[in-house]
Design brief:
Elements: H1 2-17, H2 22-62, H3 85-92, H4 95-126, H5 132-141, H6 151-160, H7 167-175, H8 179-190, H9 195-202, H10 207-218, H11 220-236, H12 239-244, H13 253-260, H14 270-290, H15 292-302
């Protein structure tokens, strides 16, 4: 009894004196750790809402009548929902033609970028030849040249070839690789163990067969990253089509969107413009969602290696 009384009195004196017990210290650490997570999630949630709100407003405007767009106070949810804005886009402009043109241009450029950047990346990463590193550095240095500087000479070249206002001007210049794509593929291929090449050489495989049967299957994540970047760039490009295309039958989606802003009528058809913009962005969102796993994997692995 005396020992129990002493224990109770010591616990009481420790509580009175303010000394924390082991249970209290662990509870404090738990609260601090989860408080940091709560703050991080709140900040990320606010950032996500701020980032996605313009897209939500675009979709909302595409479903409003012309009188609701500038109503005050503004409403995010349209009442009533005007679905007719979407078919009216196709009545105002040959939007389906613009979509097919953009899809064709993008597909050709993506195919060329993946093929030629993979070949160039393989050469710079796995093959040994004189001046390899110097050539790669010089090629990489072209990334420092602004794209606007090359517009005039590129236009002159396309005109001399007779490709002005043709599909060739929209596909050929972007098909044969790029410095960024080559750098991306090279850095990824450097992370692939060279022992795989040695084993294939022992089995009698040529350099081309090693590339096709060993390197390419392992480089699919990097190819997915390159494809997504290329699709986004070509799909959203406005300046180059504006310079090279004069015939409306060859227009891209970005040029078609520009025609809505006072180009076809005396006023801007804002609901139709937002509907067209929504349909323009929707394929990019679907492509990213489809390739998200490969995209994330490629981004995380591409920067791991290098020499």
């Amino acid at each position: 009894m005396a020992e129990q009384s002493a224990t109770v009195s010591s616990q009481g004196s420790s509580a009175v004196s303010g000394v924390s017990t082991p249970h209290e210290s662990s509870l404090t650490r738990f609260r601090r750790r989860h408080a940091g997570k709560v703050v991080a999630y709140v900040v990320l949630s606010i950032t996500a809402i701020v980032s996605i709100f313009p897209f939500l407003w675009m979709v909302s405007t595409s479903l409003k009548g012309q009188g609701q767009i500038f109503a005050w106070p503004p409403k995010l949810i349209p009442d009533p929902v005007v679905w007719s804005n979407y078919p009216e886009v196709f009545d105002t402009l040959p939007f389906h033609r613009f979509f097919l043109n953009t899809a064709f241009y993008t597909s050709m450029v993506v195919l060329g970028q993946v093929v030629f950047c993979s070949l160039a990346g393989y050469a710079f990463a796995r093959l040994q030849f004189p001046g390899r590193d110097l050539i790669f550095v010089l090629y990489l240095g072209t990334l420092m040249i602004p794209a606007t500087v090359t517009f005039v000479p590129s236009f002159i070249i396309m005109r001399e070839f007779g490709w002005y206002n043709t599909i060739w001007a929209m596909t050929i210049p972007g098909m044969f690789g790029s410095a960024f794509g080559t750098f991306l593929m090279r850095q990824f291929m450097l992370t692939i163990p060279s022992e795989l090449d040695d084993a294939a050489i022992i089995d009698g495989a040529s350099k081309l067969r090693i590339f096709l049967e060993v390197i390419v299957p392992l480089s699919r994540p990097a190819m997915a990253v390159l494809a997504v970047f290329t699709i986004t760039t070509v799909w959203n490009d406005f300046i180059w089509p504006l310079i090279m295309l004069a015939d409306q039958d060859l227009y891209t989606l970005t040029l078609g969107l520009a025609r809505f802003q006072g180009g076809m009528q005396s006023y801007t058809f804002w609901a139709g413009l937002m509907a067209a913009a929504t349909m323009t962005i929707a394929p990019l969102v679907l492509i990213f969602l489809f390739a998200q796993r490969f995209f994330t994997e490629g981004i995380s692995l591409t920067g791991m290696g290098g020499r």
